[in-house]
Amino acid sequence: MDELKRNYSIVSLSGKIVDEANSFLKAALVKAGITDILPCHGDILYACFKKPGIKVTEIAKLTHRSKSTVSAMVDKLRALGYLEKLADKNDPRAICIHPSKKALAMSEVFENISSKMNASFENKLSLEEIQTLESLLAKALQSLQKEPD
Question: From the CB of residue 112, how many other CB atoms can be counted at a distance below 10 Å?
Fold first, then answer.
């Protein structure tokens, strides 16, 4: 019974961390005057800021989301004016995703929000604890991504 409780606690606590992070991000976005995107769009924008011209498949891999989910999110962000789809110069059949001028103009705001959230972790955890937690969460994720017996 204790093992079931421990497993439930991992999932429950992970879910609560996500809920709290989303609440934090939503409030910070609203405070910054950004009301048209959701916290889940942050991963997509971040990938595009770090690698302009990234492909949807690469974003999916980086964000641990399906290609169809990422495509839908990219389309939403494009409709809102945050992203642009351009043909790959080397392969005209391939589409590359770029941040728009609107997104680039807000990149500092997004970076500040991210830094504030990271600082909230740093207020309670040492750098070593943060690295250990990230490593353990990555292992937990990998264990759930395996095929069930």
Answer: 12
Q: Give the model's pLDDT for residue 7.
A: 53
User: What are the residues whose beta carbons fall under 8 Å from the beta carbon of 35, sequence distance 6 or more?
Assistant: 29
In contact, 46 and 134? CB cutoff 8 Å: no
**Predicted structure pTM score:** 0.82
Determine the Cα–Cα distance for residues 131 and 38; give it in Å rounded to an integer: 27
Report H helices in 34-80: 41-50, 56-63, 67-79
pLDDT of residue 144: 85
Under 8 Å between Cβ of 86 and 98: yes
Asked if residues 104 and 52 have their Cβ atoms less than 8 Å apart, the reply is no
**In angstroms, how far is CA 40 from the centroid of its own chain?**
6
